[in-house]
Design a protein that fits this description.
Blueprint (H helix, E strand, L loop, with lengths): L1 H22 L3 E2 L3 E3 L2 E9 L9 E9 L7 E8 L5 E4 L5 E8 L9 E9 L7 E2 L3 E4 L5
Length: 139
């Protein structure tokens, strides 16, 4: 009887771990680009027990028009908070890897992402279309 019980517990732990691994595996981000800036990368939505249940992303932000004198940035927004900016470098390609989360919640249900070209204070920035990610934890 003990062996059967231990077998069920082991199987349950294994299946729970497999479900978590699938939920938090890396997925390709759709290509993001606007005049002068491009981003290619991956994302994952972490379960509550990993990295604060964050929206985690990584990839290359590239200045595709080095002669324009403008910088590019990635903006991320989670759970209705304000946009957070991550700046690149002019005339360069920069690798980025960040996690964004809401400290008041166990995991992220809503995240938004886009890339923009910073045109300075007097002219509006131009941004790629916003990507939106939703995740609901089962149960």
């Amino acid at each position: 009887m003990k062996r059967v019980l231990v077998g069920f517990v082991t199987a349950g732990v294994f299946l729970a771990g497999a479900g978590t691994a699938v939920a938090s595996s890396w997925r390709n981000l759709p290509a993001q680009s606007t005049t002068g800036v491009a981003f290619t990368g991956q994302y994952r939505v972490n379960p509550p027990e990993r990295n604060h249940g964050s929206f985690e992303w990584k990839g290359q932000l590239q200045d595709t028009d080095p002669g324009d004198g403008h910088n590019g940035y990635v903006e991320v927004k989670v759970e209705g908070h304000g946009w957070i900016r991550y700046y690149g470098k002019q005339r360069k390609s920069v690798f980025m890897h960040h996690s964004n989360w809401d400290g008041a919640e166990r995991y992220i249900e809503d995240a938004r992402f886009h890339v923009c070209r910073d045109k300075g204070a007097l002219r509006p920035d131009n941004c790629a279309s916003e990507l939106r990610f939703s995740y609901k934890l089962n149960g």
